[in-house]
Amino acid sequence: GQPDTTCHAFVGETVILPCTTTSPGELALSHSMLYWQIGSLLVHFFHNGQDSLTFQDKRYHGRTSLFLDQMKHGNFSLKLSNIQLPDAAVYACIYKQASSKTQKSKIKLIVSVPSSTEDAPSPSRHSQISSRSPADVPCLAVLPLSFHLLVTLGVWHL
Predict the structure, then answer these.
(1) For 123, what's the count of Cα atoms within 13 Å in the CB-facing half-sphere?
(2) Nearest one of 149, 122, 136, 118 to 6, comparing CA atoms
(3) What domains can you pick out in the chain, each with its CATH number?
(4) What InterPro entries would the database entry show (predicted)?
(5) pTM of the model as a whole
(6) How far is Cα 122 from Cα 16, in angstroms, rounded to an integer?
């Protein structure tokens, strides 16, 4: 199927892949499992109220984290740091709770090399880029696409 959301990130940045569930009240995390996967490759696993990274793919070691304080309210978004070109993929966010049905969403991550490295950089522009700290750029999945594109295009011109 089609991904529910598409995210864009540049190499070296940190991106937040959005995944939320709407359920009444607080979630019992001790009885739930959260998988972040690419196909059968395990990117992040949360089980019995804590991260369980024994079987995490080594490419993602030390680069993934969840918003543990927000998970009980249904925020299962994954923070992925130091983005690399091979990270471009369709990620599946799969949430299983003991008593309810499994919820799954797909997020496509598109990774680009910042265009500044392709042109001949002018000294002033180059120093400006190297001093920039990678901003957390959560994808705005809830907005209609046309508005999302306007926002995205607006961001590139900052």
Answers:
(1) 0
(2) 149
(3) 5-112 (2.60.40.10)
(4) Ig-like_dom, Ig-like_dom_sf, Ig-like_fold, Ig_sub, Ig_V-set, IgSF_BTN/MOG
(5) 0.72
(6) 31
CB atoms within 10 A of CB 76: 25
Residue with tokens 């395990």: 42
Look up residue 76 and give its amino acid.
F
Look at residues 34, 84, 40 and name the one whose alpha carbon lies nearest to residue 59.
Answer: 84
Mean pLDDT of the chain: 79
pLDDT in tens, 103-133: 999 999 999 998 765 444 444 443 333 333 3
Q: What six digits make up the tokens of 41? A: 């490759």
Q: How far apart are CA 66 and CA 53, in angstroms?
A: 12
User: Can you tell me the distance from the alpha carbon of 42 to that of 124, in angstroms, rounded to the nearest whole number?
Assistant: 42
